[in-house]
């Protein structure tokens, strides 16, 4: 991997130095493992500041950014209305541990904009939202088993991480996943069989409606409706993990895009406008099982803090303009159409170069996968539709591509499978520049 990665070099001596120093005091030099470059090689880049679609590193290099803070930066970096709202609240006192009118305002906004949600609870991260919604589903049904899907990521709490098919960890008790059953994504028969096998013991089914950690995998047509119908048939709670898709693929999330109503939904990322947030909500009958009115415990010193609420309200106000989502879709389509044109040219050049003996040539193993502004550059011979397919992704080629882009001022998440994001701050010129950089990188790799 590193030999390929070494071919393109970014000139960032300060980042290089800091990335060594930080490893002395923070394990791996990162506070969340995906931020490290362990999959792509090389040293990490220290981001100094963000401006709209760009991030500027400690050495002054500027990059068109598609990490998007791993989802939250949907309106770009340094979005002024969030900064203004947050600073005002900060001066009044950031935290009281008592109800605040901004909690009411944000809860009302979410309830008013997402039909499946009658009530909502705010927490501090996507992980917390998932963890709490699973407990709630168990408390509501009195059952233990949770069904999840291969290749879906639901944060770092024990029961879903232990069953995660690609984010392994030691330190989790052996029996933590005893009550979690994993089935393949995009396969209704497998879910049906699993529900039948464990009938009477299942609390809920949790799914990422668009799988964001195995190459941005869209649900097949009708799949989510089928999941909904099966959950209704077997009387289990359907939980949509919309931590990544919520307020990202549409204002109403994937559930509005695919017109399927879950019983509970988890949010995070884009909802906070950059503030640390998680939220889960759904049917009143289920939500009223939460303490203090019900018997399911969930708490948090920082939950619903005024700063986060203010940031979220400011971002939702901006996101509630429908043109935001049509523009995001248009920009991402521009990116994909531009790159596809170059892929077609590369394929033609390969055919022209080939000798008659080489027979019919396959297209280059590179797929463009996206749902709205969530996308992935997938180095695989065919489109990824489930976790099995995602195993065919060529991480070495991705590493080379990643470093070619970085050296030419375009930043992607440093993993071959995780979602990249376009923001509303990306201009046509940003996208045009990205197309050229991607095309040059693909030419280097495949020609
Ligand atoms: C779908 C999904 N669920 C849950 C999480 C966990 O969220 P957090 O990192 O805020 O704990 C993530 C984060 O990547 C996610 O993408």
Describe the structure.
By secondary structure, this protein is α/β, with parallel strands linked by helices. It is built from 15 helices and 14 strands. The N terminus is likely disordered. It binds pyridoxal-5'-phosphate. The site of pyridoxal-5'-phosphate has 14 residues, from helix 5.
- Order of adjacent strands in the largest pleated sheet: 4-10-9-8-7-5-6
Radius of gyration: 22 Å
Overall pLDDT confidence: 95
Say which CATH homologous superfamily of the largest domain is assigned: Type I PLP-dependent aspartate aminotransferase-like (Major domain)
Query: What is the name of the CATH class of the largest domain?
Result: Alpha Beta
Number of strands: 14
Low-confidence stretches: 1-6
Number of helices: 15
Overall domain count: 2
A few lines on this structure:
This protein has 447 residues and is α/β, with parallel strands linked by helices. It contains 15 helices and 14 strands.
Features of the shown structure:
447 residues, alpha/beta, Aspartate Aminotransferase, domain 1, Aspartate Aminotransferase, domain 2, seven-stranded mixed β-sheet, four-stranded mixed β-sheet, 15 helices, 14 strands, 39% helix, 14% strand, disordered N terminus, binds pyridoxal-5'-phosphate
